[in-house]
Amino acid sequence: MIIYGTNGSHVRTVAAPALACPACANPGQLSLSVFSRYAHIYWVPLVPYAKPAVAQCLHCKGAWTLKELPPEATNIREDLQTLKKQTMAPWWHWSGLVVLLLLAAWGLWASGRDQKENAAYLAAPQVGDIYTVRENDSAGEYSLLKVVRTQGNTVELVANEYAIDNAHPLDKLNDPAKYSKESFSLSQLDLRVMQQKG
């Protein structure tokens, strides 16, 4: 399966009636073309990286890139370079990069929204709220704490007696039988400190 690679497409061709072919010397038979090369991931264009330019004779079928033109063909080289500078890569050659930027922007927005929602939950805890916790900063196992009572600045919680290596353990661990019968208290400040530590 091809995951990434390069491809190209034709962008523009113009006739050059004032120029003679460097091989057969026929006037008015040259056409100048510009192509765009782009990198892709799963055939979705990511970003253009080159604009090859080619002069082709319609009479003798000879074709030359800028590097392949003979030294005496300066007027052809100049016209080809001018056409190359005036030609932009198609907008769709940037489509993969645009999609990646949109995904990154959405991820930042979603992360900010989650942080605001978490801060709101911690600012006004309600009975039945459930918090996902880790045992310590380096632990890869997660568990749950459930709010059973709130009084002023103090929150009474029960811990889930099970842990799982999934950062979203709610579906698998949120069963009343899995929670401890013993409760403990934390202040809202303690909960905010825990959130800041991750």
UniProtKB/TrEMBL annotation:
The keyword Transmembrane helix applies. The chain crosses the membrane at residues 91-109. It comes from the Bacteria. Keywords: Membrane, Transmembrane, Transmembrane helix. This is Zinc-ribbon domain-containing protein. The lineage of its organism: Bacteria, Pseudomonadati, Bacteroidota, Cytophagia, Cytophagales.
